[in-house]
Write a structure and sequence with these properties.
By secondary structure, the protein is of the alpha/beta class. The chain is built from 12 helices and 7 strands. It folds into 2 domains: 4-112; 132-328, 3-Layer(aba) Sandwich (Rossmann fold), CATH 3.40.50. The strands form 2 sheets. Strands 4-5-6-3-7 form a 5-stranded parallel β-sheet, with helices on both faces. A two-stranded antiparallel sheet has the order 1-2. The radius of gyration is 31 Å and the shape is elongated.
Length: 329
């Protein structure tokens, strides 16, 4: 999994390759054009020699700089006019001798002076969509497609509400979280198929469209990656970059917490991630199929203290939506 630093380096290499390709295409166009119109090649050479000649004149006789500049401009104007006549007679645009760029603003460098160009931002955002692991699924699972009609309106006495009323509350909470995005955290829990992952996808799409970065991982993916980074053979820089990405991405979504193989390592890493992101004021959304008592049995008191005390807890109950949709087809 590439970090943002790796993504930037990869994109900048792509810009280098793009400029190299565009330069090669320009050379090919010039060679083809000069073969058809030899005079164009002569004009190009004369124009390049004019600058050298003017510089020598100025160095040899500083007092003659103004006259040399005027002569240079006059000769350049005549040559440019002749070149234009050749193009017009052949019905060819003079821009054929200019470098073509995919982005005229930054000339395919990714930067305008020291600021990232909009094309670079677009490329990075595109990679971040892929990096978030939700590009395809959020086309179908987003706030616009969240269907409250799937939830039963029959009250569940022990919950004091119907699944539909509960889903409405959870939807409202999730939408407010995605819109405000000021550093809060969410813990979504309940049985399989109750809509937790769907709502996580809704949040991810909304936050991405607000120009934020999202990293969406299952707990199993996250801990496996951490183990490979901690104990594998990867370079230290790569290991540090991925770890920094995990801690500093605008929004981290951990899906299916509790499905991972529980070890001392996973417990300590979970606390580190939750705690470090809290210190950086970076939001976390966690979903789990475990009920609160089961979470308390699996994770340490300090982890649960963070989750219960500092996260907005959202319970999901009712029918299994996946099974319901499957048999309704």
């Amino acid at each position: 999994m590439a970090t943002r630093a790796q993504i930037y380096r990869e994109i900048l290499r792509e810009y280098d390759a793009l400029r190299t390709r565009k330069a090669a295409e320009l050379r090919e166009r010039k060679e083809s054009l000069y073969e058809r119109f030899p005079r164009l090649a002569e004009i190009e050479e004369e124009l390049s020699l004019l600058g050298i000649s003017a510089a020598r004149t100025a160095l040899g006789s500083p007092e003659g700089i103004e006259r040399a500049v005027q002569e240079l401009k006059g000769r350049q104007h005549k040559l440019a006019a002749e070149r234009l006549e050749i193009f017009e007679a052949a019905g060819i645009s003079p821009r054929v001798l200019e470098m073509e760029y995919d982005c005229e603003k930054c000339h395919d460098t990714g930067y305008i002076e020291e600021s990232p160009c909009v094309c670079l931002k677009r490329r990075v955002m595109d990679r971040l969509y892929d990096q978030s692991n939700v590009r395809d699924v959020i086309r179908l699972e987003n706030f616009d497609t969240f269907d409250l009609r799937l939830f039963s309106g029959e009250a569940v006495p022990e919950e004091g509400a119907s699944p539909k009323e509960n889903a409405q509350r959870n939807l409202k909470t999730a939408m407010a979280f995605a819109e405000d995005f000021t550093g809060g955290n969410l813990l979504l829990y309940g049985g399989t198929g109750r809509g937790k992952t769907f709502l996580c996808n809704c949040i991810a799409k909304d936050v991405l469209e607000r120009g934020k970065n999202v990293l969406y991982l299952t707990a199993g993916q996250m801990f496996k990656q951490l183990e490979e980074m901690r104990f594998g053979q990867s370079e230290d820089e790569e290991r540090t970059e991925w770890d920094e990405e995990l801690l500093d991405v605008d929004l981290l979504i951990i899906d299916d917490l509790g499905t991972e193989f529980s070890t001392v390592f996973t417990a300590s890493e979970l606390f580190r991630i939750i705690n470090d992101r809290k210190l950086r004021k970076k939001p976390v959304v966690i979903s789990t199929n475990l009920e609160i008592p089961a979470l308390m049995d699996q994770y340490s008191d300090r982890v649960m203290s963070r989750l219960i005390g500092e996260y907005t807890v959202m319970k999901f109950f009712g029918e299994d939506m996946r099974m319901k949709k499957k048999y309704q087809k």
